[in-house]
Amino acid sequence: MEKMAEPLPEIQNLPPKRPFWLRVLLWLASCLVLWAVGATAAVWLLYLAVKNSLPSLPELSAYSPPATTRVYDFTGALLAEFAVERRDVLPAGKIPRRLVEAFIAAEDDRFFSHGGIDPLGIIRAAIKNLKAGRIVQGGSTITQQVAKSIIGREKTFTRKFKEAILSLQLEKKFQKEDILYLYLNQIYLGHGSYGAQAAAQNYFHNNVWSLNLSQLATLAGLPQAPSDYDPVQRPQEALRRRDYVLERMKQVGFIDEEERQQALSQTLSAYPIEDIFRRRAPYFTEEVRRWVQKKFGFEGVYEAGLQVEATVDLDWQHAAQLAINRGLRELDQRQGYRGPLLNLPPAKQADFLKALQKKIEAEDQGKLQEGKVYPAVVQEVKENFARVRAGDREGVLPIFAMRWARPPDPTVHYRSASARVTDVRKVLKAGDVILVQLTKWEELIRNEFPGAQKLVEMKPQDALFSLEQIPGVQGALLSVEPQMEYVRAMIGGYNFEDSEFNRVLQACRQPGSAFKPIHYSLAIKDLDYNPSTIIVDSAIVYDDPENKNRWKPENYESDFKGQITLYEALINSLNIPSVKVMDKVGIAAAIEWAKKLGITTPLREELGLALGSSCVKPWDLVKVYCVFNQGGKRARLHLIKKITDRYGRVLYNRTSYKDPYQSWDEKFDRAYDRLAVPRERLLDPQSNYVLVDLLKGVAKRGTGAQASRLGKPAAGKTGTTNDSADAWFMGFTRDVVTGVWVGNDEPKNPLGKGENGSRAALPVWLDFMQQVLRERPQEDFEIPPGVVIRRIDPASGLLAGADFPGSVEAAFKEDQAPKDHVSEKNTSAPEKFFKIDGSF
Known about the structure:
By secondary structure, the chain is an alpha+beta fold. Among the domains are: 183 residues, Orthogonal Bundle (Penicillin binding protein transpeptidase fold), CATH 1.10.3810.10; 124 residues, CATH 2.40.50.140; 184 residues, 3-Layer(aba) Sandwich (Beta-lactamase), CATH 3.40.710; 45 residues, no CATH class. It contains 23 helices and 22 strands. Helix 2 runs parallel beside helix 8, helix 13 packs antiparallel against helix 23 and helix 16 packs across helix 22. The longest helix is centred in the N-terminal third of the chain and has 31 residues. The C terminus is likely disordered.
């Protein structure tokens, strides 16, 4: 019989089984604890990993963020701004309350209650952004945004963690008001503007404390997306964002409905961001930037917030640019027309003109401006005129406005009959894209026959155009006031946009006869040459056995004058006498003297140096003429008057005691500095004045006689190189020295037949000097003791009476003045050729 299975023993005192829900709850609690411990450990480990790389928080007393360096002209007008972050630190005492309220309402309305991080704000912003379908509110607090600005543009997975840590540190270290101060000076608000003050200046050309509520709300709406809410490029989006900020200010309780409505009714006008640097004085300002960077480093230019007071005067600079542009255009037209820019088929002309009109509307309010050059499309061509269209403006280009448009040929003089255009159809055809400028009839037909205007068929609404082209020739102008040691204008080329090469300081070109006063002054100083010194102008040959060369110098007119005075040799710029003077003073001595006067470029040891065969920089040559202007004292020229840091401390000062834009204390200080460091005398006053008087003769009756049209005492010297590759005029009055160079960047390209310093460079000098000295009288040059003025016969150098034909006054050192009078037998008597009654 099988045994029955024994029953299992009864288990005693077992705990009751937990309900399922309780077990789940305990499991979740355990997970949360483990997660919290793990998260805490992870956070701690992450903190340990990044703590050493956290940027240090700024001390408010030493808060010095990158700021904008500004350059001002002689009168205080803004020339340029340089900055990595365009910022003007807004003092805490000048922060408007409404500005704070606008930013808090738009960015962080719980700013004064949270501890740097606002979880509720993050959730609320996320909900609002989801509802709007776009970002209308950020989740970062103002404190977090300050932390972000301190960290910079770091792109790592730890960046947000660092922001959070810095936010907590900021809240612990600073008061809320201090954090707002940092925020309003750090926040990026578009177009390179960092901080509210820079943005106010950029967009509204005003200080932030002078803005109205509408403008303040516009600024407060920018931090989330400056480009999306740009009041210049996207005004409608900026208005919608402004309205949102105003609504938030009302909801928070900062403004009431009446204030909101008043702000909504205000128009929002924002200014385009100007490129002041390129518009006002780019060649000059770029040189200032280089100088400041060399002295103070990159940070000095782009981060230090320096205030740089330059010596340039914008009125002079503008006059110089106009003079250079006019002179180069006229010279370029004398060289001939290089042809249309391109030819458009009829199918493409409408699109081109439409695009052009948009540009005219953006830049010139939709209206063609006088004095400005525009592209145009030729619509129809006839013998005496062409119909052209510029944008939506149609007009007539008459033959009188393009007589100059012959094919370029440097061997043909521009005044020859073959150089005069007589048929428009030989120059232009329909579809040509050309450059034109608005003009007037009186400017076109002054050299035409009476009734010439009748040859052109014009409609009442037609514009009148002249043909233009961008000059291929280049030029440079430098004008200084040597007494103050200020550079007042510097033009390094026709257009900075096309070429940033500054020909005043960087180009080295042959000066031609503009070099002659250098060795002539040495001859006057050391060899007792004077206006009456006789030099033989005759053919001569120089042999160079070492280089197996033979050189036969020639005068510009290829003729010889025989025995002439130094006076005639210099004012008429004769080459052979100049070479003979160089031979007398010695090449080595002339080179040493040139360097002492201010020439820094290497000079060839050859007699051709007398004719300007070695290249010089326009800057150097102007310095040489400044020595003559200043009675023989060394020239010191400055581009910068004064540099101060953001706190007003003077870092550099070369302000002249004659500068009217300074206090009397500063004048006294600068006058003492001038006395303490006097300028070196290079040339005795007597020798110097003899040379200056000769150069006055050049500007009155010699190769530079056109300078007499200035109507003020002036001295100067023309210069032309072989094949007319370079043209110069270096001239000065009592107060102002100005040098002009004109030429092609490639010296091998001549300017054209008949072009020289008198024709190509002197008109630019005269144009500029007439503008800047129009209302400024100029005294004659002061005659120093030991110099006498005598009237002489310029042909013989002997004393002559006032009634002697062709006699001139000339300056002599007292002990060198001529004592003999010209013989009366050389005087022409009218009675020898006419009877008393006037008949033959």
